[in-house]
Design goal:
The protein has 20 helices and 25 strands.
């Protein structure tokens, strides 16, 4: 079969003006970034605010494995398949980060005949949104350090600065740094840190903001430091929120592109789900609902991370409610959970599949706790056997989940017809979403609820530093105790240990750090050894990506 990039190059894209026109977007309501991508203006969003919403479909997956699951590919293919059934469908995705594009993962624009295009642009600089987030974040850091240098009028304690610089690249050498070295004119020396841009609070704020005014207010609420006498210092006190919002004035507008079958796609925002909340922007999701019968969105990594945060954070804050959830799995991934090494996953192994299918069962059980219909999409590979597929089908149906075989990678929308029919059917079922915990529960109880109910932990241990941070946050303002929790946890396991595959139970989950994201409106709990600045692998994708003299990029998968 042809590579993803070969398929992308051979696809005849329509001018983005034609895609926009099919959605009723007028020329003046579109801001073009070249021929095939554009931003949608606030005027169009306001003009369509009173239109009825379509159905919202959330796509999630089991815990990711080296074999790959194809969640984004399934999301795109599902949108194409629903369109083939004569319904209006729009996919709403996150923007890829340069970190994984040049790191271990490579491109993140779908695959095969279910991609979003132009895939090279989307995977690289796109419309500059992530660069704008980086600039806004680092402007606040510059203003903060300048305030300390210029006599420190806010009495900021350099040892208690909580806001970090960011860059959209995997660079472990920047995790812990010292700034302000040199002469007196070079600033005040202090320890600092870098996070990857997509894990930043500014990225979360961009994705959760409903408007430019809301964005600016949330930016002003960012907790940046404490004073020498323990008082909080917020972004608004540094007078940086307006300038930050100015840098983000275009980034807040949703991006319009198309799929390999020329169906519309909105791609906007890109927080990771293992160290951030893992959902695309609220504005893009709302817009997709206004413009379609079915808006299909995805949440990052497995359902224990992205889907839980979509429901407990994004839905809680916005009132958005999915009518169905698609849970992506593969035969190969389940065999990996059953102990089969990557090089043997193509061989039929019923025993390993039966051992590893507990991971799928856990995610079905977890999603059922939210009261939403579940459709399992089995992303089929040519090495899958009918016996293996039958085992998955039996397990899913025994747990009350519909199941469909998906071949959207090799066949595009046509390969997702069965899945589309099952999703449409699921969307018509009575559905009343239940959130996992109440706002009035303590932060400790919320963390315990997620850890025990979703991850399968027996107990939660708080390191002394995390317990102290939690106490300090609760003392700042009673409203912070009502915030939802954003767990930072390895994506590779239901537990906080990436080596524990399948469905681990009876273990202790360790919370080592607690952070307040006051502007985003949630509490971040870091568990295990999870890092907010990833590093490159021994053989990163950057080694293979290249461009020829004609400007053709290769090996951007």
């Amino acid at each position: 079969m042809k590579t993803d990039i070969e398929i992308a190059h051979e696809t005849k894209m329509l001018p983005i003006t034609e895609i926009a026109a099919s959605l009723g977007i007028l020329p003046d309501e579109l801001e073009q970034y070249g021929k095939y991508k554009a931003k949608i203006t606030d005027e169009f969003i306001a003009r369509n605010a009173d239109r009825p919403d379509g159905k919202l479909v959330l796509v999630t997956a089991i815990n990711p494995t080296p074999a790959g699951e194809g969640k984004t590919t399934t999301t795109i293919g599902l949108g194409q398949a629903i369109s083939k059934l004569g319904k209006k469908a729009i996919v709403a995705l996150r923007e890829p980060s340069l970190g994984p594009v040049f790191g271990i993962k490579g491109g993140a624009a779908g695959g095969g005949y279910s991609q979003v295009l132009p895939m090279e642009d989307i995977n690289l600089h796109f419309t500059g949104d992530l660069h704008a987030v980086t600039a806004a974040n680092n402007l606040l850091c510059a203003v903060l350090d300048n305030s300390i240098h210029q006599g420190n009028p806010l009495n900021i304690d350099p040892r208690r600065i909580t806001f970090s610089r960011v860059i959209d690249m995997n660079d472990r050498a920047l995790r812990n740094i010292v700034v302000g070295l040199g002469s007196k004119a070079d600033g005040v020396p202090r320890e600092d840190h870098f996070m990857i841009t997509v894990a930043s609070e500014v990225m979360a704020i961009l994705c959760l903001a409903e408007s430019l005014d809301d964005l600016k207010e949330r930016l002003g609420d960012i907790l940046v430091a404490y004073t020498y006498d323990g008082k909080p210092v917020y972004c608004r006190q540094l007078q940086a929120a307006g300038s930050m919002a100015a840098l983000l004035k275009d980034a807040i507008k949703p991006n319009l592109v198309q799929t390999t079958e020329n169906t519309p796609a909105l791609i906007h925002g890109g927080p990771f789900a293992n160290i951030a909340h893992g959902c695309n922007s609220v504005r893009a999701t709302r817009l997709a609902l206004k413009l379609s019968d079915y808006a299909i969105t995805e949440a990052g990594f497995g359902a224990d991370l992205g889907a839980e945060k979509f429901l407990d954070i994004k839905c809680r804050m916005t009132g958005l409610r999915p009518s169905a959830v698609v849970l992506v799995t593969t035969v190969r991934a389940l065999k990996h959970n059953g102990g089969v090494p990557k090089d043997l996953l193509k061989t039929e192994n019923v025993g390993a599949l039966s051992d590893g299918i507990c991971n799928l069962e856990a995610h079905i059980d977890n999603l059922s706790k939210f009261g939403v219909p579940v459709v399992v999409a089995v992303n089929r590979f040519d090495t899958d056997t009918e016996v293996e597929l039958a085992i998955i089908r039996h397990v899913c149906e025994s747990r009350g989940a519909s199941v469909a075989i998906s071949e959207v990678f090799t066949k595009g929308g046509e390969g997702g017809i069965e899945l589309a029919e099952k999703v449409i059917e699921a969307c018509e079922k009575p559905c009343r979403i239940r959130l996992l915990y109440d706002d009035d529960m303590s932060i400790t109880d919320k963390i315990n609820t997620i850890a025990k109910s979703i991850y399968g932990a027996a107990e939660v241990k708080f390191d002394a530093s995390a317990a102290a941070e939690l106490k300090a946050i609760e003392a700042l303002d009673p409203k912070y105790s009502k915030f939802p929790v954003c767990m930072a946890k390895t994506q590779y396991s239901l537990s906080d240990d990436p080596t524990k595959l399948g469905r681990p139970a009876g273990y202790t989950l360790t919370v080592r750090e607690i952070k307040l994201s006051a502007g985003a409106g949630f509490i971040v709990a870091l568990t295990g050894t999870i890092m907010t600045m990833p590093g490159l692998s021994k053989q990163p994708a950057a080694y293979s990506i290249d461009i020829d003299n004609a400007g053709t990029i290769s090996n951007l998968f």
